[in-house]
Sequence to fold (558 residues):
Amino acid sequence: MRNEFAGLLALGLIILGCGTFRETPISLAAPAETEKRFRTSEGGAAEEIRRSAEMGTPSSLQTGLNLIRDRGLGTSDFGRVMAGVITTLTQKVYPNSGARVSTKIADLPQTYRYAKILQEAALGRYVLPQAGSQDYLEYVLPFLSLLQSSNPQDFAEALPHLRQARELNPESPIAPYFMGLAYERIGPSEEGAEMFRQAWELSEECYPAALGLARVLNQLGESKQALRILQDLTLQFPDLLPVKRDLARAYYQAKEWSRAESSISEILQQNPREGPFLLMLAQTLAEQKQFLKAGSVLDQYGALDTNNPQYLFLRARIQAEGYHNADAALTYLRSLLNRPNPGDEVPLYAAGLLLASPRLEEQAEGRSFLEDLLKKPNPPAEVFDIAFQDAARREAWTEAKTYLPRLQETATYLMKAYRVEQGLGNKERALDYAQQLQARYPEYEEGHIAYTAGLIALGKYREAEEIIENRLPSLKGGTLKGQYYYLRSQLRQDEDKTLQDLRSSLFEDPQNIDALLAILEIYRKQGDARRAGYYYRQAQSFDPNNPRVRFYDRLYAE
Fold:
């Protein structure tokens, strides 16, 4: 396919030469005798060439140029103007064929209306079709002037002409393809998707229509269908770069990070300095927790631009999530917050970091960002999630409960609901949420832990012990295993065995506040202020604003 495109364009450029349009205005009306010669002087070949141009597929355009060459029409006015039409359509409709195309417009014979339409289109000026015209190309060629336009009104005014063209030649994909572009520029709609679909159904060679259909479907929220179209196109056009680029973007937008990484990397192999794709790759790596690789990609992008908002935001994420350096992350975020219109993503991320800070002044700053986001119409679920986390951190369970209806019902939602009911003392309702969590997400270990804790809260010790003894040996270690040790400590009757389980919990998770405070309380009751103070200071260093930790401030704070 790429070789056919290259041959087509090379032939067109040989026929046309390297001249440019004249600047002298001419009448748009062609003499009647000129139009008559146009249709008759070259016999049947003229109509065949015209039909090939009207069809507008790569193969039909190639056929048109072959006819011009084989019939020796390359030096005639008719042959030159039709070669100009065919070459321009190829360049504009299939611009990424792999062929090199001159940026100059050929010096076409000015006796033909097509020449004037192409000349005006190159200057961004739309030429209206002649009243009563039955010429398909007169209706579609002016649309080339709008390909760089961003004015929806321009496209709305062009649509009636394209509808007329479709009636004149319902077999050509060019008119419905241009209609799809017009609807897309006006605003993504089902009408635009339908026009792209019609163009693609008329000719599978018209891959730009399939790309347009995928774009619109993605904008309409039909990302899976868009992905299927692009995946099919890669099988049909395995070497076509525009298809590969759109597929990489589709994987990225669908958050299929592993596939996006592979597709984007393939694009960057051809152009390692393509900034937008470098940023996309950095994000796909960050989403997969590959922070060192993401940082390396951002270093490459930094050689191009260190002021890009997405670049600075990703730098902040890597510092916060990869290196747990909230201060460095906030430095990047504040540089963005000081800009006009930073959007919602930056203050939301900053709010999350600030609210988790041990510094009260930073918590207040984060709460200010959060309150502003909550005041906006229809805040996204992420805003309520941050608000819930802030309220839960303060153990303000009544406030936390107000945010639950705005969260999506996932495993984490059920866990949040369980925590709220436990915090409010509603033990039966808490256990109900934990039971739902365990039943609907059996692979989610936190659900089993919540259910076990709910059983203990209701005094159902034997059931809880059975779960712990069944699940504890299967865990390799870490935070989850530490939580089971903590839960088992609550079932112990012997204080030494209780301390043994609590120390095992801290071995797996040194920051387990529950275990630290449980040991503190044991030593406090024993009157061992020194050891109690030791565990208080550990808990205080990990979570100084935790209400349960602050309860002991008056006893052990220095």
Observations:
- Residues 183 and 189 are 7 Å apart (CA to CA).
